[in-house]
TrEMBL record, chain A:
Family annotation (Pfam families): ETF (PF01012)
Organism: Gluconacetobacter asukensis
Role, per record: The electron transfer flavoprotein serves as a specific electron acceptor for other dehydrogenases. It transfers the electrons to the main respiratory chain via ETF-ubiquinone oxidoreductase (ETF dehydrogenase).
A GO MF label: ATP binding
Top-level taxon: Bacteria
UniProt keyword Electron transport, yes or no: yes
The protein's name: Electron transfer flavoprotein subunit beta
Lineage: Bacteria, Pseudomonadati, Pseudomonadota, Alphaproteobacteria, Acetobacterales
Gene3D superfamilies: HUPs
SMART domains hit by this protein: ETF
Domain Sigma-54 factor interaction: from-to ranges: 58-228
UniProt cofactor(s): AMP
Automatic annotation (TrEMBL), chain B:
Protein name listed in UniProt: Electron transfer flavoprotein subunit alpha
Chain ranges of the Electron transfer flavoprotein alpha/beta-subunit N-terminal domain: 3-179
Similarity comment text for this entry: Belongs to the ETF alpha-subunit/FixB family.
GO terms, biological process: fatty acid beta-oxidation using acyl-CoA dehydrogenase
Needed cofactors: FAD
Cofactor binding note: Binds 1 FAD per dimer.
Gene3D superfamilies the UniProt entry points to: HUPs (3.40.50.620), TPP-binding domain (3.40.50.1220)
A Pfam family hit: ETF_alpha
InterPro entries for the chain: DHS-like_NAD/FAD-binding_dom, ETF_a/b_N, ETF_a/FixB, ETF_alpha_N, ETF_asu_C, ETF_asu_C_CS, Rossmann-like_a/b/a_fold
Length: 249, 310, 561
């Protein structure tokens, strides 16, 4: 079974993004970038499937700028066998990414595409579902457990208020939630070895995909600062206000 | 054109978040509601104030809100609508992007404000920034944040109900089971109310003083890093930059100074209450209601006041 | 025999657990010295395998500097830097040195004659982190293998010779036991290993002890620099302006002052250096740097601006009197870990780079000789240093910093004026450093307390919201990387005598006294640490040992810092 894992290069999760003074976006120059944390989980799961003998090959894909190579190298250091960079300097929306991935699926014929549930920059939480829609495949989003047997995937999903279990006909799309696993470190020996694993670069045009964005950014602003409230005099006053004013109890 | 709103339900009860989506959708046009499940769900949807028509996708294929058939239904209905809306819950986020892909539309998730029919405000970078985006798609597919729109009243409407058919197709996914969490304490990330303690609780024993209040409010219990490091509570209680990020309706911070790393994990709560003996503590700068005093005096008083209020 | 068996057993065990990789040269630390050495090595020996490790999550993540830099070494290393996009974009156009009283600032007249070392024409205001990122990209193009996120945790020594380093283990829990994600460190073996750890390197410290490298030299003395990066309204921005100050708020017994550099797009680098030989245990370098911003000579710049980053780092202030032996079998020390910083200039970038280049040349020569069974110690490095402009430059300013310790701030300023104008740095005497910085701290009972103003949240801030802007983090579940040699000593010395000076000098709020009223104990918030190394230097009885935490931990200084 072949597994395709799309990974995105995003601002490192330790870094608090800073809105540019001119309101056109978030400062990315000189900012540390890393693999989207949900994608690390997806890579880890794919590698575990391989270690269990279920998957035979894990292919990491990224759509992005040249430096997204580093992200792919990290995926390979974690255990992916090879990587594909779809090189583009323009920002590609989930719809565009999904179209690119669909074209790659046609080329690579994976049995499973494992994505992160969402990228922590744009927080779209859309790419996996859209790819599933475009391919007409089953989808198991927000997965906290995956089992593969008898040509089917059994996926436990994190839903509002609990867990839901589905079986999916393969090939299928699964998106990884936080609790699926705890990803391993890319160790130094493996990073060194990953330098020698194959990385292929292609252009969206080679795949015949139009990725013209549908959304334009009008402005990006910092959220308004929280206003200081009031000091109440007594516990009774507090309870009364929570009940009557704020209506939260 | 009208707006199609997908209302999700849990065990037959329409979620409050979906009624918020109705409110958001009303700003865009006449609201038609799409529901699955029993007739009672459709009837409940028909009574929501502001819903002009209910579309009920009945039958096995539509049960359990599986994404594949539901997205297909939405795509089928789409030609009659300018916007397709759902609440930003697990269900809406599962289904709507798939439907959008079928329509060749880029969805707009987590809308917190509607500027006009094409322009929406949504948080990015986990709320560190707000992006105003304008869509050039002919049709808009959006999910909206429930906390940003008041829920439409559950009663007051009397909309007609129509059946819609679920397009035939191979069953790609199958429902196996659902397990709703039963724990007495809700989980931190999904709790409606959180009571959180800091170093001011002094020790493990005293930290338990928060239990009765939390029980009383059906709240989860959280903690600051200082409280975790001092061993009052385990690691997974920690709220903040390196702990859990939460946004409950009510967050009660007891004996927490309000360092920025703690605020990073809870500042998006709807209402923040601070109980602290230091009137200069930074937590008061973000608290909606602050109570200055010794927490060991105040906690019993709050409980008493709650009991009195019934 | 038993010893030999034991050694072999240990070797076999480590070999089992750790993977090994062989290189010609391994460089520990990706600052200007390490990167310059790497580039130079590949220039001379294009076939040599050069591996550089950096404990920061990326190159530049741990680099904290002013920085006004002299391009002299860069000119020698990469003469085409102007054409190849080096981020040296703001030439210095205007400079001022202010003497501050509490409410006024007096510009020192004839600056370039009284303080010739402060002359900055031809220099550039930069983000040293960005310069390092650029140097790293050049180095990688030239075939250097760079691995950020991996700390050199131990030195590999065999038969008295350094044969490389071991990177830190990953995934060890707080209890010291390997967790589910355990990944053992790796042995990076090399013919020669260059230590480029910057001020107060943790492996350097071990090498100094192992090879007695400090024998016969003055103790190293240090300063702590705390920095903020601001974005200010365009009308307050004067690109190219370099402003320094001395005097208020420090007393005459404390060496230090502030800097303010305007560069880039509305960016201002502001910071404060205090000599770590300060005596007053109540002094808080962080609060000094905060309150200085309120002085009329500085405040106007920050009004209406936005603080975007924060950080701190120690620097070596000993000068040539304090430079240790530079080589040992199998390697050498380069950059600020050896102490190559021109103190009165507060510049160490060009000297760090130059020392790295000279060491590279020496190593290249030794590698060639080693093939014929030659030298194990790249000793020609020392001779090269002594023959270079680097030595001449440091020699000329050698008496300035010690004069301040000896004659106080005002006397020191006077001495350095005389030294510069009359003696022109050629005084026939050398003033020595008589103490280490930790020895001169005075007890809480004799030190005058200092009342610092409360932060206003606009121009001045508290420590924790500052640390937030350093984007510092450490994986929580790991052993504490700040070790007390003795817990008991903390109570009897640090608390009873000095009232926990670490809670004040640590610029990241790592050290907190808990239960001060009842049973005082030290709470170490290791996660906050910005790797400045001050505690390793200033603890009164050297009870704190700074070790490298899990790789990639620590600050994540952004571009512009
Ligand atoms: C309004 C708007 C503004 C934008 N502004 C910018 C900008 O300023 N700079 C910029 O660089 N981009 C920008 N983009 C594009 C953006 O970078 C994304 O490529 C796109 O929006 C994907 O959204 P997401 O990552 O949140 O998707 P999600 O649907 O949240 O991602 C889910 C998963 O899909 C996969 N995935 C997503 N994207 C990729 C990818 N590129 N390669 C491989 N796998 C992927 C990953 O597995 C990921 O975990 C913008 C997009 C929009 C809509
Ligand atoms: C990289 C990094 C990550 C961090 N991550 C987190 C994180 O995820 N979560 C987090 O919480 N912190 C985090 N911190 C730590 C944070 O900076 C603070 O140190 C911590 O939040 C302080 O916890 P506290 O408010 O409980 O303690 P303190 O700051 O000591 O505050 C205790 C408060 O209790 C009050 N008090 C004491 N006694 C009483 C009484 N009897 N009655 C009423 N009030 C009383 C005091 O007035 C005081 O305000 C992080 C720091 C760093 C640098
Ligand atoms: C506040 C301040 C202001 C300054 N202003 C100026 C100025 O204006 N102009 C100027 O020219 N100079 C200035 N300097 C001095 C200059 O920054 C230093 O001299 C110079 O950075 C030294 O370079 P280096 O390569 O020796 O060390 P560093 O720049 O300190 O780099 C050392 C690198 O090694 C890494 N490292 C350390 N130990 C390990 C390990 N064990 N394993 C892996 N990696 C490790 C560190 O993370 C770091 O990235 C200033 C210094 C400070 C602190
Ligand atoms: S703990 Fe030590 S090295 Fe870390 S920031 Fe504090 S003083 Fe600096």
């Amino acid at each position: 079974m072949k597994v395709l894992v799309p990974v995105k290069r995003v601002i490192d999760f330790n870094i608090k993004p800073r809105v540019k003074a001119d309101g056109t976006g978030v400062e990315t120059a000189g900012v540390k970038m890393s693999m989207n944390p949900f994608d690390e989980i997806a890579v880890e799961e794919a590698v575990r499937l391989k270690e269990k003998g279920i998957a035979t090959e894990v292919v990491a894909v990224s759509v992005g700028v040249q430096q997204a190579q580093d992200t792919l190298r990290t995926a390979m250091a974690m255990g992916a066998d090879r990587a594909i960079l779809v090189l583009t300097d323009v920002a590609v929306e989930p719809l565009g990414v999904a179209k690119i991935l669909k074209a790659l699926v046609a080329k690579e014929s994976p049995d499973l595409v494992l994505l992160g549930k969402q990228a922590i920059d744009d927080d779209m939480n859309a790419t996996g579902q859209m790819l599933a829609g475009l391919l007409g495949w089953a989808q198991g989003t927000f997965a906290s457990k995956i089992e593969i047997a008898d040509g089917k995937a059994t996926v436990t999903r994190e839903i509002d208020g609990g867990l839901e279990t589905l079986t999916l006909a393969l090939p299928a799309i699964v998106t990884a939630d936080l609790r699926l696993n705890e990803p391993r470190y890319a160790s130094l020996p493996n990073i060194m070895k990953a330098r020698k694993k194959p990385l292929e670069t292609i252009a969206p045009a080679d795949l015949g995909v139009d990725v013209t964005p549908r959304l334009t950014i009008v402005s990006v602003a910092e959220p308004p600062a929280r206003q200081q409230g009031i000091k109440v005099e007594s516990a009774a006053d507090l309870v009364a206000r929570l009940r009557n004013e704020a209506k939260v109890i | 054109m009208a707006v199609l709103v997908f209302l999700d339900h849990e065990s037959g009860i329409i979620r409050q978040a979906s009624r918020s989506a109705v409110t958001a959708a009303r700003a865009l046009g006449e609201v038609h509601a799409l529901v699955t499940g029993d007739a009672s769900v459709a009837e409940a949807a028909a009574r929501i104030d502001g819903v002009a028509k209910v579309l009920r996708a009945a039958g096995a294929a539509a049960a359990h809100e599986l994404a594949e058939p539901l997205a297909a239904v939405i795509a089928d209905l789409a030609p009659a609508y300018s916007h397709i809306v759902a609440a930003s819950g697990a269900s809406g986020k599962n289904v709507l992007p798939r439907a959008a892909a079928l329509l060749d539309v880029q969805p707009i998730p987590d809308v917190v404000s509607i500027v006009d029919a094409d322009t929406f405000v949504r948080p990015i970078y986990a709320g560190s920034a707000l992006a105003t985006v304008k869509s050039s798609d002919a049709k808009k597919v959006l999910t909206v944040r429930a906390s940003s729109f008041d829920p439409a009243p559950a009663e007051g409407g009397a909309a007609p109900i129509e059946q819609v058919t679920v397009p035939e197709g191979p069953a790609l996914s199958e429902f196996v089971s659902i397990a709703l969490s039963q724990s007495e304490r809700p989980e931190l990330e999904s709790a409606r109310v959180i009571v959180s303690g800091g170093r001011g609780m002094q020790n493990e024993e005293n930290f338990k003083l928060l239990n009765p209040l939390a029980d009383r409010l059906g709240a989860a219990i959280g903690a600051s890093r200082a409280a975790v490091d001092a061993g009052f509570v385990p690691n997974d209680y920690q709220v903040g930059q390196t702990g859990k990020i939460v946004a409950p309706e009510l967050y009660i911070a007891v004996g927490i100074s309000g360092a920025i790393q703690h605020l990073a994990g809870m500042k998006d709560s709807k209402i923040i209450v601070a109980i602290n003996k230091d009137p200069e503590a930074p937590i008061f700068q973000v608290a909606d209601y602050g109570l200055v005093g010794d927490l060991f005096d105040i906690l019993p008083q709050v409980e008493a006041a709650l009991d009195k209020a019934g | 025999m038993a010893q030999q068996l034991q050694d072999e057993a240990r070797k076999a065990m480590t070999e089992h657990a750790r993977e090994t990789m062989e290189f010609d040269i391994v460089i520990v630390g990706g600052g200007p010295s390490g990167l310059a050495a790497a580039i130079r090595l590949r220039q001379i020996l294009p076939q040599a395998t050069v591996c550089l490790i950096e404990k920061g999550s990326e190159i530049g993540a741990h680099i904290l500097s002013g920085a006004v830099i002299e391009p002299r070494a860069l000119d020698e290393l990469l003469p085409d830097w102007r054409e190849t996009g080096a981020p040296l974009n703001t030439p210095v156009t205007e400079e001022a040195m202010l003497f501050l009283t509490e409410s006024r600032g007096y510009a020192v007249p004839m600056l370039d004659r009284v303080m010739p070392h402060m002359r900055n024409h031809g220099n550039y205001i930069v983000s040293l982190g960005d310069v390092c990122r650029w140097l790293a990209a050049r180095a990688e193009e030239m075939g250097v293998e760079i691995y950020p996120g991996f700390a050199g945790a131990d030195v590999l020594v065999e038969d008295g010779r350094v044969v490389g380093v071991v990177t830190g283990d990953m995934g060890i829990g707080r209890d010291g036991e390997p967790g589910p994600n355990y990944a053992p460190g790796m042995e990076l073996r090399a013919k020669y290993t260059l230590f480029a750890e910057g001020c107060r390197g943790s492996l350097t410290k071990r090498l100094m002890a192992m090879y007695n490298l400090r024998k016969g030299v003055d103790p190293q003395t240090y300063g702590l620099g705390i920095k903020e990066l601001w974005e200010v309204p365009a009308e307050q921005h004067r690109p190219g302006l370099v402003q320094h100050s001395f005097g208020w708020p420090l007393d005459n017994r404390t060496y230090g002052g502030a800097w303010m550099y305007h560069f880039g797009e509305n960016l201002v680098s502001y910071g404060f250096v205090v000599g770590l030989d300060y005596p007053n245990t109540w002094l808080s370098p962080f609060d000094e740097m905060q309150r200085l911003k309120l002085h009329p000579s500085f405040r106007g710049t920050f009004e209406g601006g936005r603080r975007i980053a924060y950080g701190a780092r120690a620097l070596s202030e000993g000068g040539i009197q304090s430079i240790p032996r530079l080589t040992f079998p199998g390697g050498a020390l380069i950059g600020d870990t050896a102490g190559f910083l021109n103190v009165p200039k507060i510049k160490g970038t060009h000297t760090a780079m130059k020392s790295g280049m000279l060491a590279a040349e020496a190593v290249a020569e030794a590698v060639a000789e080693a093939m014929e069974g030659g030298r194990v110690e790249p000793t020609s490095y020392t001779a090269r240093v002594r023959k270079s402009w680097l030595w001449e430059e440091l020699r000329a300013v050698r008496n300035v910093r010690p004069a301040f310790s000896r004659f106080g701030m005002k006397g020191g300023a006077l001495y350095s004026g005389i030294d510069a104008m009359l003696l022109r740095g050629r005084a026939p005497w050398t003033l020595h450093h008589r103490h280490t910085d930790n020895e001169v701290l005075e007890s809480a009972s004799v030190s005058p307390p200092i009342a610092y103003p409360k932060p206003d949240g606009k121009i001045t801030f508290d420590k924790l919201s500052s640390v937030f802007l350093s984007a510092t983090n450490h994986e929580e579940d790991q052993p504490v990387h700040l070790k007390l040699r003795s817990d008991a000593l903390w109570k009897t010395v640090n608390w009873d005598v000095f009232r926990a000076p670490e809670s004040r000098y640590c610029p990241a709020g790592v050290y907190e006294v808990a239960d001060a009223e009842t049973a005082p104990r030290l709470q170490i918030n290791a996660q906050n640490c910005v790797h400045c190394k001050t505690c390793d230097i200033k603890d009164p009885v050297q009870n704190i040992d700074w070790a490298t935490p899990e790789g990639a931990g620590g600050p994540n200084y952004p571009g512009g810092m």
